[in-house]
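Please fill in the sequence for the structure shown.

STRUCTURE ENCODING:
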């Protein structure tokens, strides 16, 4: 079965170039296109592609709104966002949604096509500039936690018990419990699972690895 790709961008030359390049790749099929978000949403619902390439600044429904709606409806569609901007607010929101990729348009259709291939394989694909800004924003967001609290939160996300975390860090279980209490208070939650979910929502955990960058 070919990888089914949907393109949504209000610049026809970009769509045309990307469609032409993807058509040369084995196992890829562009199943639909749209020039605005409203049309894109209707087609996404009907076509249910494997990968949706969405312009972040689409008229009517923008790419971020579409990504949120895809997530809300539970559609198994991987999202690759395209943008001409390194805008912190857009990057922060994209990471909070959990999109699979975010590329700058100036990288060109070849890089975008390569990112589509990565996303289709279940990897993440981010422009180096976007990834750098995302990591910087994550560090800014997590400044309210101490180094030890960040360390414990990461180990909690890995599924380790309090006892195992204590052994790993060479501290007592009671100390781990104290730090978790501080983390819960700062995140506004009352249990480990909720702390991990909130940390992921804020973009503090599960950032793309260097091996998953687009280049």
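FILLED IN BY: designer on duty
SEQUENCE:
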């Amino acid at each position: 079965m070919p990888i089914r790709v949907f393109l949504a961008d209000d610049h026809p030359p970009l769509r045309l170039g990307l469609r032409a390049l993807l058509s040369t790749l084995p196992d890829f099929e562009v199943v639909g296109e749209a020039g605005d978000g409203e049309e894109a949403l209707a087609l996404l619902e009907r076509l249910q592609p494997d990968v949706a390439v969405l312009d972040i600044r689409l008229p009517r429904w923008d790419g971020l709104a579409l990504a949120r709606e895809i997530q809300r409806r539970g559609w198994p569609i991987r999202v690759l966002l395209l943008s001409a901007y390194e805008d912190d607010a857009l990057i922060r929101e994209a990471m909070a949604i959990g999109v699979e990729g975010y590329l700058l348009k100036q990288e060109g259709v070849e890089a975008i096509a390569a990112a589509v291939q990565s996303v289709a394989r279940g990897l993440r694909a981010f422009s180096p500039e976007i990834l750098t800004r995302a990591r910087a924003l994550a560090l800014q967001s997590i400044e309210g936690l101490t180094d030890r609290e960040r360390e414990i939160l990461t180990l909690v996300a890995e599924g380790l018990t309090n006892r195992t975390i204590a052994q790993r860090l060479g501290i007592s279980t009671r100390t781990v419990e104290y730090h978790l209490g501080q983390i819960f208070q700062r995140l506004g939650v009352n249990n480990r699972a909720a702390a991990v979910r909130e940390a992921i929502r804020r973009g503090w955990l599960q950032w793309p690895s260097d091996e998953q960058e687009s280049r």
